[in-house]
Design brief:
The structure is a single chain. Helix content is 68%, strand content 0%. The protein is an all-alpha fold. Helix 1 packs antiparallel against helix 13 and helix 12 runs antiparallel to helix 13. The chain is flat and about 75 Å long. The N terminus is likely disordered.
Length: 304
């Protein structure tokens, strides 16, 4: 009988055709993702640059000589850099007074509106009382009432109180909550598990202790968002200080720059320097608070 010889096929190498296909497919996916990220970042950089052009042009103008501003073609870079523009600007107007007045308005507004809004939002999100939802809708309805509608009654009231020509007609209403900030904080408080409150109450905490020891520590992003919004709004406040204040030394910075423009409107380099001084605090605050600000916007829910 003929002896049969068995032929043993060698094992297929690890990662054969199917493995190679998977590797090539994975490589294409990674390349597509990298290309997508590159395209996204490119669009974001270009968009950011377009939005930054007015600010960069203002910054460039603030360091140039007046006779160089009208060159044709325009000079894109200050040559030489004229730092004296900021000194001249500071000496031609009471900028120190304007900055102090604006800071007082900002501090009072941030403390008053933020603190009161926290208490009101906590009441709407964590307590049950008759007419709660209807009262909250009424508060939101106040957002539809323009501030210009109430300016005449406020003017008459503060004139009778003898508080005109000061920052108090602007600062006193800011000591109370604001509907938009109440809405933001309430929506965030609703996203916090109620079980945390119940656990604190089992340990003997009352409503205020739950607020200060549980809710507020967990709500720092939302509170930071409200504080940043408040800072920007109060720092840029123009209409009410313009109506209530007449003395130049008592103006806020936003209105003071308008007064400065009426006095030195042709000194464009100093006007741009004054604008940079006005914008710089907002940029600094947002730079240091952007992490909490973005997180607060992202985490603020729409739970009803």
């Amino acid at each position: 009988m003929a002896q049969q010889t068995a032929t043993v096929e060698p094992p297929a190498p690890s990662g054969g055709a199917s493995g190679g296909t998977r590797i090539r497919t994975s490589g294409r996916v990674r390349a597509a993702r990298a290309g997508g990220r590159f395209s996204t970042y490119t669009v974001l950089w270009l968009g950011s640059f377009l939005y930054a052009i007015p600010f960069l042009w203002m910054l460039r103008t603030s360091f140039m000589r007046l006779d160089k501003l009208f060159d044709d073609p325009p000079q894109l870079w200050p040559d030489p850099w004229i730092w004296q523009n900021y000194i001249d600007m500071w000496e031609t107007g009471p900028f120190a007074n304007w900055i102090v007045n604006s800071l007082i308005l900002v501090v009072l507004g941030m403390l008053g509106q933020t603190v009161v809004s926290i208490f009101v939002a906590y009441g709407f999100s964590r307590t049950q009382f008759p007419g709660r939802n209807q009262l909250f809708i009424l508060i939101l309805a106040s957002l539809m009432l323009p501030g210009h509608v109430t300016i005449v009654p406020k003017f008459v009231m503060f004139r009778q109180l003898g508080l005109l020509d000061s920052i108090w007609p602007v600062a006193i209403p800011d000591l109370w909550g604001q509907a938009f900030y109440i809405f933001i904080l309430r929506q965030f408080f609703l996203t916090l598990p109620i079980e945390l409150d119940e656990a604190a109450e089992i340990d003997g905490a009352n409503l205020l202790q739950v607020l200060f020891r549980v809710v507020i520590p967990l709500s720092k992003p939302a509170i930071a968002t409200v504080a940043v919004f408040n800072f920007i709004n109060k720092w840029n406040e123009f209409f009410e200080p313009f109506v209530f204040i007449q003395t130049p030394e008592k103006l806020t910075l936003a209105v003071g720059i308008r007064w400065f423009r009426t006095q030195y409107g042709t000194e464009f380099q100093m006007l741009m320097a004054a604008s940079i001084v006005s914008v710089a605090p907002i940029i600094i605050v947002f730079f240091f608070a952007q992490k909490q600000f973005v997180r607060g916007i992202a985490l603020t829910g729409i739970k009803s």
